[in-house]
Design brief:
single chain; Helix Hairpins; six-stranded mixed β-sheet; 21 helices
Length: 638
């Protein structure tokens, strides 16, 4: 039986239907990723499912006794609660007992009091009666896996750590249906990797919103896309969705073009005057009216963001030279003896856990923070833009027009003058939206506004600290293209692994104890090259409320990649396997080519869903077999 069934949900804001007849079923064991552009209604749908918002029409049915838990984009807590109490609160009344037990144990460790001992004994009996020990162990286990500081007050935690607390709070409830809205926002890469593995082991049903393409590919068993109020289903993983979606859009465009051509012909006929009126067919007139109505109701796909970075004069060849840079906070080494040379055109990614020191290193490189030792020298003609700074400069009371125009009606980008309304339109803000205050924007819209403001200013060096949060996939891909073509120098902090792989050419990796190592390539290249004994070190916040965690890099050391290995002679069986592998691989490639030709046929997706899914699954299996075959071939030959 289905855990969650959604029937014909309808909700509209103004004259536009945000959800227009949305229906779907969530089965036990399914992990569905809900995708769509910013503003399409994904968070609205999640809130309706979590009973935090009511739809105009339709209904949501849960299986009897089914528990549902919801992680919102911006979780809220009592700032005076400790992390342990906030997590235990997810257990309700039993959670209160667990909190009391935790407090009593903590107090008894500092004082010997008979009254406290008696109170502890009473709480222990109540916990035993309500299966509290298992639940208390669950709280401790989840907190340990998320590396949460038990006694730290939530109000003193950063956004990323608060998100971990919220995630822990809902995980301890062991819900049957888990709703996660952007679960990877503010999580570092190691935490994202852990979350991926955890979600794949859940026994219930999962529905999550995400724009992290690597996360979607690893976790989702089905993709649902919300587009212009309608919900479309795509079986299998994210890569399969991309292939099917492209074909769907092409078919939609073809169908729309045929419809428009036919409507235009009918419009010509109705305007032929007396000749037409003499032979006018009233049924044909009524059909034309219906066609006009259908065309008026058609919702076109929203346009794409137009990104164009305003370029400043070219900087000198040498951008930043770093020599023996070191920085510590509270006796903790953030960066130790780090040296590097950044040249014009470099695109460098910074990889490390939350609190490792990425932002601190950026501020050291920009001269906003003084090092304990070492030097940072800037080259000539640098015009630097720092993305993170713009976040703090956004005035929530100003309109979008005022934010971009800064008192002017037009702006100049690369020598071309453009009206502010037109420029905002490039970032998908309508003329009416341009007069709205910044505080009315969603997270994704706010990030688009930041990009609009950033790219309007001339620069030859971009420093971007987490620019991808809340951006939809299409905007992410456009941002990738623009940054790849940027003629200046780029320093980028991001936890989006695919974004790093697609944009940067080298990486500064924080590997613990102040050590920062430079590698060629992006995240995947670092994973391949990093030391085999590498253990990630998460930095747990201390009881001190720090300013935004400031950290620093370490010496630039070439990674040790060469190892001495001795070749052994292949066994007879292995020699036969090596001889047969080329033929097997050739056969698999031929079969894959034939199947892909079928997929490329214009009528492929007109078949039954069962048939198309079968062929797409075959392609995926053959691709996996080919990958294993190539790896085995390489292993045997080496």
């Amino acid at each position: 039986m289905s855990l969650l069934t959604v029937h014909n949900l309808q909700i509209a804001f103004g004259h536009v239907a945000l959800l227009d007849g949305v229906s779907f079923v969530l089965e036990r064991g399914e992990r569905i990723c809900l995708i769509g552009r910013n503003g399409e209604g994904k968070s609205t749908l999640m809130k309706i499912l979590a009973a935090q918002m009511r739809a105009d029409d339709g209904k949501v049915e849960l299986q009897d006794g089914c528990k549902i838990a919801y992680l919102a984009q911006e979780p809220t807590f009592d700032p005076e609660m400790t992390a342990f109490h906030a997590v235990a609160a997810g257990l309700g009344e039993v959670g209160v007992l667990v909190e009391t037990y935790h407090d009593l144990i903590h107090r008894l460790s500092h004082e010997n009091n008979d009254a406290l001992l008696k109170q502890l004994e009473d709480v222990q009996h109540q916990l035993e009666a309500q299966d509290g020990w298992r639940l208390e162990q669950r709280v401790n286990t989840v907190m340990s896996r998320l590396e949460l500081p038990e006694d730290q007050k939530v109000g003193a935690l950063s956004g990323g750590w608060k998100r971990r607390v919220a995630l822990a709070q809902i995980l301890v409830t062991e819900p049957d249906v888990l709703l996660l809205d952007e679960p990877t926002n503010h999580l570092d890469i190691e935490a994202i990797n852990w979350l991926e593995e955890l979600l794949k082991t859940l026994g219930g049903g999962l529905l999550f919103v995400s724009h992290d393409r690597a996360f979607m590919q690893k976790v989702a068993t089905r993709i649902m896309e919300l587009d212009r109020g309608k919900l479309s289903n795509y079986p299998n993983d994210y890569d399969t969705y991309l292939r099917v979606k492209q074909a769907t859009l092409e078919a939609e465009a073809t169908q729309a073009a045929k419809f428009d051509k036919f409507l235009a012909q009918e419009e010509v006929w109705i305007r032929q005057g007396i000749k037409a009126r003499r032979t006018r067919n009233e049924g044909r007139v009524r059909r034309l009216e219906a066609l006009r109505m259908e065309r008026a109701l058609r919702r076109e796909q929203t346009g794409k963001i137009k990104l164009n970075i305003s370029q400043a004069e070219i900087s000198g060849k040498l951008v930043i030279e770093v020599d023996n840079l070191s920085k510590s906070f509270d006796n903790r080494s953030i960066v130790k003896q780090f040296s590097t040379m950044i040249l014009r055109g470099d695109r460098i990614g910074l990889i490390g856990n939350n609190g490792a020191g990425k932002t601190t290193l950026l501020k050291l490189l920009l001269g906003e923070l003084e090092p304990d030792s070492g030097t940072v020298k800037h080259g000539t003609q640098l015009n630097i833009l720092y993305f993170d700074q713009l976040r703090t400069e956004l005035d929530p009371e100003l309109t979008l027009f005022e934010t971009i125009g800064q008192g002017r009606d037009s702006i100049t980008i690369n020598g071309q003058t453009k009206h502010v309304i037109s420029y905002l339109g490039d970032f998908l803000f309508s003329a009416a939206r341009a007069r709205s205050p910044v505080k009315s924007l969603s997270g994704g819209e706010r990030n688009r506004l930041l990009l609009a403001r950033l790219f309007a200013k001339p620069s030859n060096m971009l420093v971007m600290d987490e620019p991808t949060n809340d951006l939809d996939v299409e905007s992410l891909e456009l941002l990738e293209d623009v940054l790849a073509d940027y003629q200046g120098t780029l320093l980028l902090v991001s936890h989006d692994r695919q974004f790093l792989d697609n944009v940067v050419t080298s990486t500064f990796a924080f590997e613990g104890n102040g050590k920062v190592v430079e590698y060629v390539g992006g995240y995947a290249d670092w994973v391949r090259q990093r030391p085999k004994n590498f253990i990630s070190q998460s930095v747990i916040p201390t009881n001190k409320v720090a300013q935004p965690v400031k950290t620093t890099p370490a010496p630039q050391v070439a990674p040790q990649t060469s190892t001495i290995s001795t070749k052994r002679k292949l066994s007879y069986k292995e020699q036969r396997e090596l001889a047969d592998l080329p033929l097997k691989i050739d056969a698999l490639e031929t079969e894959l080519h034939d199947l892909q030709n079928q997929v490329n046929q214009p009528d492929f997706y007109r078949q039954s869903t069962e048939q198309t899914t079968k062929i797409l699954n075959q392609i995926k299996e053959i691709e996996n077999d080919l990958s294993k075959g190539y790896q085995r071939w390489q292993a045997l030959e080496s």
